[in-house]
Write a structure and sequence with these properties.
Blueprint: E1 3-7, E2 12-17, H1 27-42, E3 48-53, H2 64-69, H3 74-92, E4 97-101, E5 104-106, H4 108-114, E6 118-122, E7 126-128, H5 140-143, H6 149-158, E8 161-163, H7 164-167, E9 175-177, H8 182-194, H9 198-210, H10 216-233, H11 235-244
Parallel strand pairs: 2-3, 3-4, 4-6, 5-7, 6-9
Antiparallel strand pairs: 1-2, 7-8
């Protein structure tokens, strides 16, 4: 199962992504993340969500191979809609979302984490937005919630990554712990939130979103428009083929 959701007795709901080998989510996977978060927020027994992952890393973004295996623009449209739905579901979840990040968190992973309410990470975690390498744009909106503007631009233009420990100084990552302590670190914060009156916490989540200086849904949608332009130009398809090792001129696929 790619996405699982478990509600604990203490009101903490744990949503886990598990899509081997690298948690690069298919179109359906992104919609499943969105559905799990929407369900969590709608369930009044849920007081807080911990979003975590199994495997080598937290999230490697969109499944490029699925996109290159699909004719036309169906997979591109699906991935864009799925990512938008998932990021929006994190941001608009009626209860706080704590992201527990292990290993790599790149591309779409940054979209999830950047919209979370709290981030804890393992000491091997790192973040990046390598979209320019694949001829796409997106998640700058969310990286800008993790690092200052000039850092975001440098990371974006160069496709470099930044270790979780460097984000603690910006306050975007609460703490960095050994990997085997990550789940407990996330649960510590979750238990603090779950101990509060959930009616107040739900009101607080809505209130904080209401005073956010940036409309994350609108700004991400703006970025996606440029991704569509690059695809229509043929640039994105060429770069994705290079990344995935596909030679469409020879009828190859993966």
């Amino acid at each position: 199962m790619t996405i699982s959701s478990e509600l604990r007795d203490d009101g903490i709901r744990v949503i886990t992504m598990n899509a081997p080998p690298v948690n690069a989510l298919t179109v359906q996977g992104w919609f499943d993340v969105a559905a799990a978060l929407d369900e969590a927020g709608a369930d009044l027994a849920t007081k807080v969500v911990v979003l975590r992952a199994e495997g080598k890393g937290f999230n490697a973004g969109v499944d490029i191979k699925e996109m290159q295996n699909t004719s036309g623009f169906d997979a591109l449209l699906g991935a864009n809609k799925g990512c938008y739905a998932a990021f929006k579901a994190v941001y608009e979840c009626s209860v706080p979302v704590i992201a527990a990040v292990n290993g790599f968190c790149v591309g779409g992973g940054v979209g999830l984490v950047g919209n979370a309410d709290c981030v804890v990470a393992s000491d091997d975690a790192y973040f990046g937005v390598p979209e320019v390498n694949q001829g796409a744009l997106g998640a700058a909106t969310h990286m800008a919630r993790l690092v200052p503007q000039h850092m975001m631009r440098t990371l974006y233009f160069t496709a470099r990554t930044i270790p979780a420990k460097d984000l603690v100084q910006f306050g975007s990552v609460l703490e960095v712990v050994p990997r085997d302590e990550l789940d407990e670190a996330a649960l510590r914060v979750a238990r603090d939130i779950a101990a509060k009156d959930t009616r107040v916490i739900r009101a607080a989540k809505e209130a904080l979103n209401g005073i956010d200086p940036i409309n994350v849904n609108q700004s991400y949608r703006w970025e996606q428009g440029f991704t569509f332009e690059l695809n229509l130009m043929g640039v994105s398809d060429e770069l994705r083929d290079d990344f995935a090792g596909t030679d469409k001129s020879k009828g190859a696929s993966q």
